[in-house]
Design goal:
This protein has about 375 residues and is of the alpha/beta class. The chain has helices at about 25-40, 45-65, 70-95, 105-110, 115-120, 130-140, 140-150, 160-180, 190-200, 210-230, 285-290, 295-305, 340-360, 370; strands at about 130, 235-250, 255-270, 275-280, 320-325, 330-335. Strands 1, 2, 3, 4, 5 and 6 form a six-stranded mixed β-sheet that branches.
């Protein structure tokens, strides 16, 4: 039996009732074939091997339905099964010579058309996020693992949990400060920000208590610097964790590309213009990297397409005049802008990437750094360093 085919026989319980009319061999074969087609998406180039395996299942179903008295028919089916198995083995060997393991994830990872069949079974969702686009650009197979197969990652990383707690504390404090100023009261003290973080700090994703303590120690300086920056700011936070969704024209006859997401913060500056702020924990980027940051471009495109409204007035917010990445631990704020031409070019890029995803092109693009940080490195058949 091939390594990727598992045959399990389950005996019925002693008190099981016998159906009045048991399914025929043809019924069993049809049902099994339907399941097989759903579980084994394969590209058109491998239809011959697929057909052989499907026929083998049909033969096994027919053998199970035959009585022992029909020796001649039984022998004929067994002979055909041996022939089918021999042919399938030859097809598999040829596939291996071409660098493909038959009927495995390796087919998907190395042969782009395989994804077309996969998407017939597990269709994509109705929209794309910035994270989804970035995952695909990093490695299409990594995207398929997460968004098509929906396989959970190997682990929850501590720095994600830390970043979530910091971001949520920032958001809660910004709301408290905004409400206090609107009421003519004094700004809330640092203890308000610290208590928000402490309430959210529930370390579960760290390797040990020492690692959790390391992140906790890093939190207080970051909170203190944010607090000082907030008190000195003259901007008004008008939206926090603001949801958006907009559609991009994908061309004649194609379904529009819907893009969704959340913006950490939207400020109104003293001159009435709009600034988008995205918080980042961990390392910081250079100005050149900020100038081409796709996440900021996505947010700018959302406002430029009228996808965000003022939560208080309901009016559509104008395009952002300033885009800022705030690196919380180093207290660095790097700002940039996007011109209408840059946003049009970026929109075209998103449409192009969405088209590749919809085509089912999930061929892996392994690399040392890509695979080192991939949640699916233990599962992937095409990880860096593997044959």
């Amino acid at each position: 039996t091939p390594a990727d085919v598992v045959v399990a026989r389950r005996e019925p319980p002693l008190d099981a009732e016998v159906e009045a009319s048991a399914p025929t061999a043809d019924d069993a074969a049809a049902a099994t074939t339907e399941v097989l087609q759903r579980l084994m998406p394969v590209p058109q180039a491998f239809e011959r091997r697929y057909a052989l395996r499907r026929r083998a299942v049909e033969i096994i179903g027919a053998l199970e339905a035959l009585g022992e008295v029909d020796a001649e028919a039984r022998a004929a089916l067994i002979d055909e099964l041996v022939t089918v198995a021999t042919d399938a083995a030859g097809e598999a060997e040829e596939a291996r010579r071409n660098g493909l393991d038959p009927m495995t994830l390796r087919v998907l990872s190395r042969h782009a058309p395989a994804g077309q069949t996969l998407l017939q079974i597990a269709p994509l969702g109705g929209s794309f996020s910035h994270s989804a686009f970035q995952r695909y650009l990093t490695c299409p197979l990594q995207y398929a693992f997460e968004y098509v197969y929906r396989i959970p990652g190997d682990e929850t990383k501590g720095h994600f949990e830390f970043g979530t707690a910091v971001h949520s504390a920032f958001e809660a404090f910004a709301i408290a400060r905004r409400d206090a100023r609107a009421a003519g009261a004094l700004d809330p003290g640092f203890e308000v920000l610290k208590s928000e973080f402490d309430a959210l700090w529930q370390p579960r994703a760290y390797g040990d208590a020492q690692q959790a303590e390391h992140y906790l120690t890093r939190s207080e300086p970051a909170l203190r610097r944010f607090y000082d920056r907030e008190l000195a700011s003259t901007a008004q936070a008008i939206a926090l964790e603001q949801e958006f969704e907009f559609a991009l024209d994908a061309g004649e006859g194609a379904e529009p590309v819907r893009v969704r997401g959340y913006i950490d913060r939207i400020d109104r500056l003293p001159n009435g213009s709009i600034e988008i702020v995205d918080y980042k924990t961990g390392g910081w980027k250079s100005q050149a990297e900020v100038d081409r940051d796709d996440q900021l471009s996505t947010y700018a495109l959302a406002l430029a397409r009228g996808a965000v409204r003022d939560p208080e007035t309901g009016e559509v917010l104008p395009p952002a005049s300033k885009l800022t990445l705030y690196f919380t631990e180093s207290d660095r704020a790097l700002s940039t802008t996007r011109s209408p031409d840059q946003l049009d070019e970026f929109a075209a890029k998103l449409v192009e990437v969405a088209g590749r995803i919809r085509s089912g092109d999930f061929a892996a693009t392994p690399g040392f750094k890509t695979c080192q940080w991939c949640d699916y490195r233990r599962t992937c058949p095409s990880r860096w360093g593997e044959a």
